[in-house]
Structures are given as structure tokens and as C-alpha cells.
Amino acid sequence: MKIPRFTYHRPATEEEALAMLTEFGEDAKVLAGGQSLIPLMALRLSRPAHLIDIGGLRELAAIRERSGTVSVGAAVRHVEVERSALVARAAPLAAAAMPHIGHGAIRNRGTACGSLAHADPAAELPAVALAAGASFVVRRASGERTVPASEFFLGYLTCDMGPDELLVEWRLPTWPVTAGWSVQEVSRRHGDFALLGMAAMIDTDPVGRISTAALSLFGAASTPIRVDAAEKLLTGEPPSAALFDEAAEIVKGQLDPPGDLHGTAAYRKHLGAVLTRRCLSEAAGRLGAAA
Amino acid sequence: MSDDRCEVTVTVNGEERSLAVECRRTLAEVLREDLGLTGTHLGCEHGVCGACTVAVDGAAARSCLMLAVQADGCEIETVESLGTEEKLHPIQQAMWDEHGFQCAFCAPGFLMTVYCLLRENPAPTPEEIREELSGNLCRCTGYASILTGVQAALSRGAAADA
């Protein structure tokens, strides 16, 4: 397999990268870790004329906490998120997703923002972003905007970014210390894309009733999806196995997943119920564990 | 670097190499074809099989999923750095003794993955070993003999040489 020809650019600053994106627009792709883009190019599913390599931009390589958010820069690799004490404390849902992403060798090179901008609906991080109420800082030469996760993922491998824009930062709200979390998935082989997966968070009020519930599925549709009906059912109730069973049935009923040679649609619906129970009971066990 | 050739300087198995390569060439292609280091094998060429795993700045990476130009300034170790035919690396020797591989096409990737794992974690649990090796495919053995080989390498203190 030969990757199609392209012109390689290594901007020295973010500003230079944005200028290149303005100049080349549709003809350019941003290269960070390359763990999604390079295989697409090897298979000739993508053939950009220009590659803009931001992998070495130190200004985009930081994980920071500021004003109630954890921010992950565009050049931060999965392995750095996985090992970050800050992420483990202030964004435990993201931390829980990391070991599921690809394999060690992939996480050593791939970036969190790259995976998010790639917007694969079967990937973990888009679902984490949706469950956690994250947002994305998207910049072009003429300015920047912040897009909430609920509006960012538009379809299969498609997110709300123009050809001249760069995803510079993934912002996760600092985790509420009382809340519990869980990421569960079923895949054919550890590290493969999930047949179905879920990222969940629940929080409780002072009398122990569920005050917030977020159930976000990946591998279920052309984007990650939340299951509002199940979240509504959970809200206001004290956590219990019976309640979680009821939520699981709702998730199963609401799902309309694709079927393929790895698993039928009916099997994936069944997994929806299984993963809901697993996620909710694990998240309930972690209520207050981030404190 | 506006045309389609790129200047790349890498340290490969301790030796600094500077070359001008087509920007579209992967690290695996440059290692094999430009530097003659054919120990690194290419299986799927899109990041699934793990046969092309090498160490980049000490950490396992798929050399088919990296452009050579992305490795500019990096230190690369390939399977050729492990041992020689006369003196195998302890990981290789343990694999040999335990009949870890059969056809061994996948061996370079497994060996480099184990090498990087032991460097980072000199005493991995069997579960950690399985998880780390889950990214490498072997179509001969069913993996049991490979895991036995890694355990043998561990019990002989191979981590000290990683």
C-alpha cells in the first residue's frame, strides 16, 4: 500500500498552522498523531494534497486546569491523558475511557483531539465528551468559537468544523466530586472498536436521589447518542438495581443500531441493556469516589 | 519542505541517519527499503496487525502508521537492535526455548512490544502482558506459546536488558 502524494508542512507555531489552513482549506488535512488519518490515506479513502503536521507544536501539547475546566490541547497524546493525575482527579470519565482506546502502541502516538475531530461514532472519546458536557475550542485565522459536544458531532466521521478550522482544545468541565462514572464496552478483541459501548455519569442530591444522569452510547448510530428517556427515568429516584433494570429496558427499546458481520442489530440492542446495567451499577459504586 | 521530498534525521539502533525521502513514505518503508532493516515486517499496513511495531523514543509505535518525517529527530529501535544470531536477546532466547513462534512473521512486532513493555514495567502481571500484546496478531500459535515465552523471559530477568 502506498500513501498518495501530498505536500508536507510543519508549521512552527499555531498561528502558522492556521494561516496554512486558510490558504489550503479543503485541500489540507491536519496531521497530529496520524493514527486515524494515516490508515485512511493508506487505504486511499482520504487523499489530501497538503498535510499540516501539528504534532510537534508545544503550545498545543498541554493538559491544564483553569476556571472549572480541564483542557486538553490538540497535540496531547492519548498516553499523556491516560497517565495524567489531573485527568484522573478532575475528569475521571475521560480517564476511564483511555485504556479502551486502541492498543498501547496506538495510544503512544494518537491524540485525544485527533480522535474527537475524526468523529468516529464507534470511538470512546466522542461519547465521553457528550456524557461529560464537554466543549471544543475551534480556531481559524480570523477567530475562535466554542462548540458544545451536543452540537459538535454531526454524522459519520463528520463534526462541526470548517476546512480552515483547527480543533485546538477539548474542554471538560471539572468533575463534580459527588458524581460517579463508568465506561464499558463490548468488543471482539480488547482494543478493537466496540460493538457497542457506553460512557455514563450519575450524580445524587444530598438526600441520595439521582440529580443528574448522562448515558452516552458509542457504536450505536452515526454519532454518539444520549438516551434522554432513560436519563429522565433515573432523575429524581434513589439508585437501585430495579431502577437500573428499568433504565436498561428503555435503552434497549430506544436503540436502532446497525447490524453487520460482527453483530446483529438485535444483539447490539441486547448489549445496550447489558451495558446500561453494568455502567449504572459501577457509576453508583463510585458516587463520591472522586472526592 | 514544499516539494514532496522531506529531509529526515533519525537515530536508528544507535546510529544517526540523515536522508531525503518522499514525504509520503512511512517509517516502516524507510526502515526496510532505504535503510535495509528488513527485520521490521509489514502485515496489514493500516495499524491492525502490529507486525511493524518498533520503539520510537522508547515507546512502542506502529511504524506503518507513522510517516518517516514524523520520526524526524526521534530515536528508533528495531528488532535488529535486540540481539544477534550468535547472541540472542534474553527475550528472543526465551521465545526460542519455549517455541513461542511458528512461522514468526509476527515475531518482530511481538518482540518489540514485549521489549517496550518490560522497559516501562519490569514486572507486568499476566493480565497486563495479555492486554499489551492484544494489539499484535499471530495466525499460527493461538498465543499460548507466546505468553509462555514472555513469562519465561520475565522469570529469567529479561527486564534488566529491556
Q: Any key phrases for this structure?
A:
heterodimer; A: 291 residues; alpha+beta; Uridine Diphospho-n-acetylenolpyruvylglucosamine Reductase, domain 2; Uridine Diphospho-n-acetylenolpyruvylglucosamine Reductase, domain 3; 3 domains; 4-stranded antiparallel beta sheet; 14 strands; B: 162 residues; Ubiquitin-like (UB roll); 2 domains; 5-stranded mixed beta sheet; 5 helices
Which helices and strands, and how do they pair?
The complex is a heterodimer of chains A (291) and B (162).
Chain A: E1 7-9, H1 14-24, E2 28-31, H2 37-42, E3 50-53, E4 63-66, E5 69-73, H3 78-83, H4 85-90, H5 92-97, H6 104-107, H7 112-118, H8 124-132, E6 135-140, E7 143-148, H9 149-152, E8 153-155, E9 158-159, E10 166-173, E11 180-186, E12 196-204, E13 210-218, E14 225-226, H10 228-234, H11 241-254, H12 265-285
Parallel strand pairs in A: 1-3, 2-3
Antiparallel strand pairs in A: 4-5, 5-10, 6-7, 6-10, 8-9, 11-12, 12-13, 13-14
Helix pairs in contact in A: 10-11, 11-12
Chain B: E1 5-12, E2 15-22, H1 27-34, E3 53-56, E4 59-62, E5 75-77, H2 90-97, H3 107-120, H4 126-133, H5 144-155
Parallel strand pairs in B: 1-5
Antiparallel strand pairs in B: 1-2, 3-4, 3-5
Task: Give me the number of helical elements of chain B.
Answer: 5
Poorly predicted ranges of chain A: none
Largest sheet of chain B: 5 strands, mixed
Uncertain runs of chain B with pLDDT below 50, 5 residues or more? none
Mean pLDDT of chain A: 96
Q: SSE order of chain A, as H and E?
A: EHEHEEEHHHHHHEEHEEEEEEEHHH
Query: What's the architecture of the largest domain in chain B, going by CATH?
Result: Roll
Shape of chain B: globular
What structural class is derived from the secondary structure elements of chain A? alpha+beta
Mean pLDDT of chain B: 95
Helix content of chain A: 25-40%
Quick one: biggest sheet of chain A? Answer: 5 strands, antiparallel
The percent of residues in helical segments of chain B reads 25-40%
**H-E string of chain B:** EEHEEEHHHH
Q: Which term fits the overall shape of chain A?
A: globular
Major interchain interface with per-chain residue totals: A-B, 32 and 33 residues
CATH superfamily of the largest domain in chain B: Beta-grasp domain
Secondary structure: number of strands of chain A: 14
**Could you name the CATH class of the largest domain in chain A?**
Alpha Beta
